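FAQ: What does the model actually see?

It sees only this:
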Amino acid sequence: MLSVFDAIRGMDYPGLLARLLFASICGALIGMERSVKNRPAGFRTHILICLGGAIASVTGHFLFLGLHLPADVTRLSGQVITGLGFIGAGTIIVAKDINIIGLTTAAGLWATGIVGLAFGSGFYEGGLLGTVIILLTESLLAPLGKRIRHIPRFELELRYDNKTALDAVLRYCKDKHMSIRSLSIHSMEADNKAFKALVELQGRQKASELRERIRQMPGIVSADLTEHEESSDP
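And it is asked to produce this:
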């Protein structure tokens, strides 16, 4: 532990003020990065999350050390960590049932709350290091995350008039090392002579080649292939 913080580790007024100030400042720094990127939770939200975590931690210590109650000093902190999950869930948005936006912000809120708990318990070193690493992760690592190649996902809308045609398509996709994530089949006519299938695929096959090969198969009336955009939260 760094000796420079020894004078403000106690539960007296200077120590209490230092814990709350450190939590507020570090929460503000993390929140500023989110605000610049126009994320759902910004400057003030991160301050309140971090400050609230610090207050909860300080309160747990006060009940045990100040009032000498038979209290578990970690119980309040544990409840804060659980509650932060519900707050973070409010920043997650599902767009068009495909893209999920806000996961990084939600995780940042959760981590910021724990930074507040660290400051509230007097663990200044952990709180400061946590703040630095959170900021580096949310800012400097964002371009690196965008450069990671994801396995493409496709949605295949298939119309066919021969039941064996679908089996041929699925067999071809498996031969091309395509993973079949979901499959739904619908009858388009009362006499069951025309069918429609929605197939979600994942693999590195080129969409244009896959589409043209499927369209040439016997029994296929039409085949439309749409590539899903990957979700991101910069």
